[in-house]
């Protein structure tokens, strides 16, 4: 069974559109995250959710909004897409954040904005 | 703030060569340290980790030792294989933080 899954794997869309990326984890973890990997492979944290509460927002534009319907899901909604949003977005999850345990990553969603 | 510095590469080696990828960090307190690997077209997989000073993480022939005095966590492998070709990320998790801070990744290419 896949531990952390994301859909879709690829997403191609036009500037100005609104899109969502879905993430699900079956590990029973309390905390989920979204990371952005740019064209140079640099990874940066965007959000984390713990028990449905947003606990990190790293100066991400408010066009990005994470939504967590339950502990196992953290979806990423993006409004008014811009060219610079093109990247690979990774979802991750962990237990007991801040105690040094590993984060488990999904396979990534490659977003291309035309 | 927290930061991780690693050699970016690409690093090209012949099969069976010795590998070292340097990683140094800046963090408040005593962070946990990780190496993640990303194979072409795939997500990130944890390779190894260390949570306190002098800990050695090891997996699949790779090793890294948490050196507090030099704030380093260098990745080593004695004999690399073509299948080790990937991008390697050093990362830290600061105490009380939730998100990982990553280095810029090192692209490793192993030639037969």
Molecular structure report:
The complex is a heterodimer of chains A (114) and B (112). In chain A, 0% of the residues lie in helices and 55% in strands. With 114 residues, chain A is mainly β. In chain A, strand 5 and strand 6 (53-57) form a beta hairpin. The radius of gyration of chain A is 13 Å and the shape is globular. Chain B is an all-beta fold and 112 residues long. In chain B, strands 2, 5, 6, 10, 11 and 12 form a six-stranded mixed β-sheet that branches. Chain B starts with a strand and ends with a strand.
Summarize this entry quickly:
By secondary structure, chain A is mainly beta. In chain A, 0% of the residues lie in helices and 55% in strands. Chains A and B meet through strand 4, strand 5 and strand 10 of A and strand 5, strand 6, strand 10 and strand 11 of B.
Order of helices and strands of chain B: EEEEEEEEEEEE
* Record field, number of beta strands of chain A: 11
Q: Between the first and last Cα atoms of chain A, what is the distance in angstroms?
A: 34 Å
Mean pLDDT across the residues of chain A is 90
Helical coverage of chain A, percent range: under 10%
Average of per-residue pLDDT values of chain B? 94
The whole-angstrom Rg of chain B is: 13 Å
Q: Structural class per helix/strand content of chain A? A: mainly beta
Strand percentage of chain B, roughly?
A: over 45%
Shape of chain B: globular
Write the layout of secondary structure elements.
The complex is a heterodimer of chains A (114) and B (112).
Chain A: E1 4-7, E2 10-13, E3 19-25, E4 31-37, E5 43-50, E6 53-57, E7 64-70, E8 73-78, E9 87-94, E10 104-105, E11 109-113
Parallel strand pairs in A: 2-11
Antiparallel strand pairs in A: 1-3, 3-8, 4-5, 4-9, 5-6, 7-8, 9-10, 9-11
Chain B: E1 3-6, E2 11-14, E3 19-21, E4 23-26, E5 32-38, E6 44-50, E7 56-59, E8 62-65, E9 75-77, E10 86-93, E11 101-102, E12 106-111
Task: For the structure shown, list the relevant keywords.
heterodimer, A: 114 residues, mainly beta, 4-stranded antiparallel sheet, 11 strands, globular, B: 112 residues, 0% helix
